[in-house]
Amino acid sequence: MPYRLRTIAPIPRDGALTSALNDMDMKPNLQSDSRPDRDAAAYAEAEVGIAAPPERVWQLLTRIDRWSEWNALVERAKLDGQLEPGSLFHWKSKGLTVTSTLRDVVPCRRLAWTGKALGTRAIHTWELAATPSGTLLRTAESFSGWLPKLMPRAMQRTLEETLPAWLQAVRSEAEREGTSWRAPGE
Known about the structure:
Alpha-D-Glucose-1,6-Bisphosphate, Chain A, domain 4; 7-stranded antiparallel sheet
């Protein structure tokens, strides 16, 4: 089989090596890149029932700029643009700055993004389902790249600790009395 060559842009001379390395990745298809890889170096999934309607849970997940108000794992977060596939957001968690790209946005049903930080590529999904008592919230995430391959147990442990912590933070805020929110159309 013949080799396929890919032209790689030269590294800028201004010292932006990390940025150049991130930009060298081929841009993935937005929709095909929205499911965590179960065969990645690290993968985890978790779910929780929430006594709040899907609209409330969706609001918490999609107001990215406000994550740090209710989630102790997030120091700051900022969405660049609209809540739509292809939009970037930048956030900091546990001292690590992450740049993420929204891949799938289906109101009150599904939110997916990919992210890159320090030798790691993440794919993260949230899926919401209405239940008689509120919402079933499922999340899954995979880590691939050189760092997860080098430290698979540590990266697996990270996912197994952070996914339940995120779910608990969402549930606590969604179920908190006196929390203001508006359903669509109100």
